[in-house]
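Holo prediction — zinc ion.
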Amino acid sequence: MRFNEGAGLDVSQVEDLRGSGIGGRVAAGGGGLGVVGLVIYFLLAQFGGVDSTSVSGFGQLGEVGAGQQVDNSSLEQNCRTGADANTNHDCATVATVNSIQDYWSDQFARSGRTYAEAPTNFFTSGVRTACGTAGSDVGPFYCPTDSEIYIDLTFFEELRQRFGARGGPFAEAYVLAHEYGHHVQNLLGTSAQVRGGSGPESDGVRLELQADCYAGVWANHATTTPTENGQPLITEITPEDIANALDTAARIGDDFIQRELGGGTVDESSFTHGTSAQREKWFTTGYTTGDPARCDTFGARDLG
Ligand SMILES: [Zn+2]
C-alpha cells in the first residue's frame, strides 16, 4: 500500500490520547483473565466486539479518575501529507482512517444518506469510553454508544508476535476498515436490529462477517476514492497487501483462535466472529464486488 505523496491528511479524524495515561489503573483492574489462552481469545473476540456492554473486560464508568485529554499536536506536526504516511506508522494510520471515511462519506451520499464521521482514538494501556473503561488487552474496538473507535497501536505488534500474522500496513488497514464497518452498521441501524449472541449462525457472527465484507468493499475503492482536494489518498494496493489482509483474517477466525491459541478444542457454540474461512470469504466478497449490497450476511443461507 502506497499513499499519494502530495495528498493532505486530516488529523482531526484521530484523537491522540496517548499522553494522558489513565492506563495503569485500568490495566491493573481489568479483566482478571489469568489464562493466556483466554486472554488471547478475549483480545481477538474484541477485535471488533460490538456489544461491549456485555463484555466483562469493560469496567463501569467512573471507575477511573479524571484526565483523559486529546493531544493531537504531535500528529499535526508530523502527519501533513501522504509522504509522511509512507514513512511514519502514526501517519499511515491517520491516512487510512481518512481514506476509509472518504469512501463511506461518498457511498452514503450516493444513496441519499449522510455519513457521520467517527474518530479513531489512539490510546496506551487503558481508555475510558461511553461503553466503559477498557484495557489494551481487549484489542481494537468500536463503541456504538459514543460512535468512536479505540485502538492501542501496539495491537499490531501483538498480531505479528502472538498470532503469527504477517502484518504490514494493509493488514492494519483491514483491521481499521473492519471497525469502521461496525460504525456503518451503527449508522444504518443494522446493529440495533440484531440480537447478537454467539454460535455459528448467530446474528453476532453475521454482524462481524458483514464488517469484514465492508472492509473489503472499502479496499476495492481505496485507490479511486478522492479526498477533498480531488486526488485519491492511496495510490497502490498490491496483491501482497490483499494477501496480508487475508492472512490476518485467517488468524482471527474463531476456529483458528480456539484451536491454535485457546487450548485446542473448537466449540462452535461460542463462535462470535466466524471461522477463518468465513472471514476470508466475506472480505473477498466485498473486495471483488466493491458493492456493500453484496454484504448481506443476514440474508445469506450459507455463510461459507
Ligand atoms: Zn468486529
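READOUT: The chain has one domain: 2-295.
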